[in-house]
Write a structure and sequence with these properties.
With about 375 residues, the chain is an alpha/beta fold. About 40% of the residues lie in helices and about 20% in strands. The protein contains 14 helices and 15 strands. The chain has a 7-stranded parallel sheet with strand order 3-2-1-4-5-6-7, with helices on both faces. Helix 7 packs across helix 12 and helix 10 packs across helix 13. The longest helix is centred in the N-terminal third of the chain and has 18 residues. It is globular, with a radius of gyration of 21 Å. It starts with 6 loop residues before the first strand and ends with a helix.
């Protein structure tokens, strides 16, 4: 077991959409499993007062709040101008923070470990200001260390000029007590308040935000599948809505199978396991996944995964999925049909998927983070 001096770590919670974003959910899961650090590390969360009980409800952690505003402008301002002084005044030895389009790594004197769950090269494409793009890369280069959740993200950062030696791949964990294979589900309708969804259905558990999440292409592929087979399956799109929701809803309303396409809006993560376990397959067409946690949760739940051959998905699944070109709805259609008609393939993907998911645990995640903390603190 690694031993440390007592150190004080500050964890930034600003800009995590009150725990609803992928990084917000990740932080909540990390905090609930971080007790292995409590003997040698003092943890303090900081952020808006409104999030005190979102992230600060773990009894062993303190939470320091400050008056904060909402929105991307405030987030950028806070991380660039206020956070370095805040970290220094509170005498943090190390600060953990995320990196994204509204959150650049701070460049203060306190050592900083950045979490990167996004494909930064894709983030840069969204920035129409050359100066902002330059500053994001510059500040990433100044981070003491960077924790990423896949080799895909690591290679993406290296291609942007970030030194490989400061990038640490720490795979995410899965709550295996919550996401597991259930063989005793027989109800025709899944009741997950406030929803009641009739089976059989396919599920895409992802936020309806970026167009590259590919909800529109999935809807087109699903419509082709329905037209060709006349199968009774529905399509459930479970995730919070953002700028891509308008296009997705328009595509759904234009489909002749509109009544079989269900957009839930924000869906509580604690209820996702019930929805996954009752679905026939997880269809995941996103082209910009640096992690793919819902895919792992689907595999752990014992349902087959049909996904894009893009981003980190081939790495995360280790090939235990049926892949398609995410830009071709006809491939999505044929893959949906195949997974529903080829029982041998389905059984193989379910069995291998369950085994693959077992390798993603929070115990491994936390122990690897211990190693990163140790190397940074002693450097």
């Amino acid at each position: 077991m690694l031993q440390y001096l007592i150190m004080k770590i500050g964890i930034d919670t600003v800009g995590l959409n009150h725990g609803r974003s992928s990084m917000g959910l990740y932080l909540i899961s990390v905090l609930s499993n971080l007790n292995v650090l409590n003997d040698d590390v003092q943890i303090e969360l900081f952020g808006s007062e409104v999030d005190r009980y979102t992230f600060g409800n773990e009894s062993n952690y303190t939470y320091k709040s400050f008056l904060s505003l909402e929105g991307s402008v405030f987030e950028k301002f806070w991380h660039k101008f206020s956070m370095p002084g805040f970290a220094r005044r509170n005498q943090y030895d190390i600060v953990f923070y995320r990196v994204g389009i509204n959150c650049y790594p701070f460049t203060g004197k306190v050592k900083g470990i950045a979490f990167v769950h996004e494909i930064i090269s894709e983030t840069l494409k969204e920035l129409d200001n050359f100066s902002l793009r330059k500053n994001l890369i510059k500040s990433l280069k100044k981070a003491t260390a960077i924790i990423v959740s896949s080799e895909y993200i690591k290679n993406d950062l290296i291609s942007l000029g970030i030194k490989a030696e400061k990038i640490f791949v720490v795979y995410i964990g899965i709550d295996h007590e919550h996401f597991y294979h259930r063989s005793d589900i027989t109800d025709d309708t899944v009741v997950v308040k406030p929803f009641a969804i009739k089976r059989p259905f396919l599920i895409y558990p992802s936020s309806v935000t970026d167009e590259k999440k590919n909800h529109v292409k999935l809807i087109k592929g699903f419509s082709e599948f329905k037209k060709k087979t006349n199968f009774p399956h529905r399509l459930v799109l479970a995730g919070s809505e953002g700028k891509g929701a308008k296009l997705a809803r328009k595509a759904a309303s234009n489909s002749e199978f509109m009544s079989d396409i269900f957009l839930t809006g924000y869906f509580p993560h604690q209820n996702l396991s019930d929805l996954l376990s009752c679905s026939e397959a997880c269809i995941f067409p996103s082209k910009i996944e640096g992690v793919g946690l819902p895919v792992l949760e689907a595999m752990a739940s014992g349902i087959p995964v049909v996904c894009a051959n893009a981003g980190a998905l081939p790495e995360i699944t280790a090939g235990n999925a049926l892949f398609f070109d995410p830009d071709k709805p006809e491939q999505i259609s044929s893959c949906i049909e195949r997974i529903l008609t080829d029982s041998e393939l389905k059984e193989k993907l379910v069995e291998n998927g369950i085994e693959r998911a077992k390798s993603f645990t929070w115990e491994k995640n936390i122990e690897q983070m211990r190693s990163v903390i140790h190397s940074i603190y002693e450097s």
